[in-house]
Amino acid sequence: MEKVNKIVVRIASERIINGGLNPKTEKIYVIDDITNVDYRAAVEDFILTSTEGV
Asked: Which residue in 4, 9, 41, 54 is deepest, having the highest Cβ count within 10 Å?
C-alpha cells in the first residue's frame, strides 16, 4: 500500500461529503473520480468513520 497524504484524503473526503467541485473537472466531486486505489480506500474509510449514521 502506498503511503497516502492524510490532508489530501481529508480534503477530498470533505468535498465529496459536501458536494464540492472536483478541481480538475469543475463538476461535483464523486468517489469514482479517485483513480488511485490507495487514496480511494483511504477516502472511503474517512467518509465511513466521519459520517454519523453509516
From this structure: 9
